[in-house]
Amino acid sequence: MLNCTSSKTVRNLVMSIGILTASFSHGGVRAGTVPIQVASIREADFQIAQASLIAEMEQEILRRINQHRARKGLSALSWSSDIAHQARSHSRNMAKKIVSFGHQGFSERSKAINNSIQSQRTAENVAWVASRRDPAGQAIEAWLKSPKHLQNIEGNFSMTGIGISISSSGEYYFTQDFAQK
């Protein structure tokens, strides 16, 4: 149990917290910490808030895509954390300019999805939005106006995962991957 008597103690604890590591050698145990890179409590709070906003946007996209599918008489897509992992990774890579905006690496993501959920087929939609005014809504609207993206949204798929990342300049990158199990 940890007893803290001042806010300075708590702040120092938060700033120095790390991931506990342990190693075993010659019958003994060695423990230590690996520091987490957090510049300030304010930055950590911002990162938590941003992650929460992104998770809400991902679920909002799922809800709105499923509403569209319902209007067309199609079954709802179920959320897959495995698929979302692939979508998030791709959005993060686009936001960090590791890959160009587009579908670069989709065959590898498709294989990873197939390996994790044994899917029959996969598809992908990506979007880029520079505006902070309802970026998720803008991505959905663009997808619904595009015949190829709409084909994926209305396709014979049962599962989806969505990933969103924000670049250092505030641009939103969206990836929605689809799979049929």
UniProtKB/TrEMBL annotation:
<protein>
    <recommendedName>
        <fullName>SCP domain-containing protein</fullName>
    </recommendedName>
</protein>
<dbReference type="Pfam" id="PF00188">
    <property type="entry name" value="CAP"/>
</dbReference>
<feature type="domain" description="SCP">
    <location>
        <begin position="62"/>
        <end position="178"/>
    </location>
</feature>
<dbReference type="InterPro" id="IPR035940">
    <property type="entry name" value="CAP_sf"/>
</dbReference>
<dbReference type="InterPro" id="IPR014044">
    <property type="entry name" value="CAP_dom"/>
</dbReference>
